[in-house]
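Z., the sequence and structure:
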Amino acid sequence: MSNLVETGDAVALDAEKSLPSKSYERKTIVASSFGALLEWYDLYIYAALTATFAELFFPPGNEVAAMLASLAIFGAAFILRPIGALLFGYFGDRYGRKRTFLATIWLMGVATIGIGLLPTYAQIGVLAPVLLVTLRLAQGLALGGEVGGAATYLTENAAPGRRGFATSWLQTTATIGLLLSIVVVTVVRLSMDNATFTAWGWRIPFVLSIVLLAVSVYLRRGLSESPVFTRMKSKGRVSENPISASLSNGRNVRNMFILLFSVASGVGILYGTGHFYSAYFLANVLKVEPTTSNILMSCALVLATPFYVLFGWLSDKIGRKWIMVSACLLAAVTTQPVFKGLTHFANPALEKFQSENTIVVEGSDCSFRLFSPAVTACDKTRNFLNGVGVTYTFKETPVGSPVRVEVAGAQITGFDAGALKAAMKQAGWPETADLSQVNKPVVVLLLWYLVVLLTMVYGPIVSFMVELFPAHLRYTSLSLPFHIGSGWFGGMLPFVLTSINAAQGSIYAGLWYPVIVLLVSFTVGALFIRETRQNSID
């Protein structure tokens, strides 16, 4: 192993030995991972409070539209991730890994604290969601630079044969960050009543981010520049324009497309399904009480976290490709059954109601509205049914016909939420899940399974991406396709899936979206990915 000599921000390496010591490798793992933990925690607090933001930051009158808008803003942070990848990738490949990924945590931390201080819609009107979007975009910009920077830096400080294992520790931070956000939000909720939490308690998890920010900055300031970048710079091999160089090299572009349409899009879908939509489905569709839902999700996350390291280690032994693409195939085959299983074990009364009763909506003036308030009686009826999480069939009737709903033989003409709810209850519809009927061990098992599928891809993917691209273009080349795939496909998944459900009047229709993308990811990965674990990264 190498003897390191600190020279400003660089690392002078022994001419004969070019790898950092194991103690320094451990130091880079801790510093990189803690900074990434901050970024994921900051990003996920919003996910844990989606319903709260829908209530506080959008005009009243259409709960489904407000929820969809809140989910869209959640996805907005992911939309900007590729821009962050290009921006910070350029600086990382041009000027060094350390300074760049130190800048990303400052940007993320400041944006998160800013969200915690925002005035609400009731205080400043439409400016509230505008400011919220702006700060979420800043978070996405930061995350776009963070993942590629931490991945590149940590892999370049890992020994050959240990890259998958070393970088898999970094990957645990995504799940731990989500877990931490759930725990903090749950503790704050339990420490006060609902009115107080809605008034100001929701701000606490965001403002607490300042503690993580301070520790992250302290740890990263103590790191030296990547040894690979140091050698590259000393030999004059640093790219003058990493973006144009990445996009003008045919082989490099080919690898970027393979990464995008294989494991990058696959891991995004697995992320969106296992981390976000499963929790949303449990609490908002199956109506499991929020604290119970958070506890069940937390148990699944804790039990799944060691598998990041397991699959990272295993990828060093048997290869990365087939572990990753197998997860995509397994998820494509089992996503629909798993979510139907969640309904069966978390809210059996809802499953029974859906199987024994058909709800039919007939109307002539219905239109699918994403964000605008429901106007017609037909729109309001469908909006109500979407909001309570039941599946229904819609039939178009002649122009001018009033909306009519049939529920278990009962006929309701016009929009009447009270009559609809009474008819559904009469037929056995549960307004909320009966906690005594929730099979908690099996629900945790199903949630755990979804996250374990994610660990199969996410554990090895960092080392795979770094090994796929040359050092002078690495930060930029891996960041752009990864963030388009994981950010756009995964970050927008809850919004896209929920929109499809609302348009189709089904709680399962949108689940075909992740299934289709995962099948594409498996096919591209199986046909075009080449094993990389033996590749040199210098």
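Residues 1-17 have pLDDT under 50 and may be disordered. The chain is about 70% helix and 5% strand.

Let me know what you think.
H.
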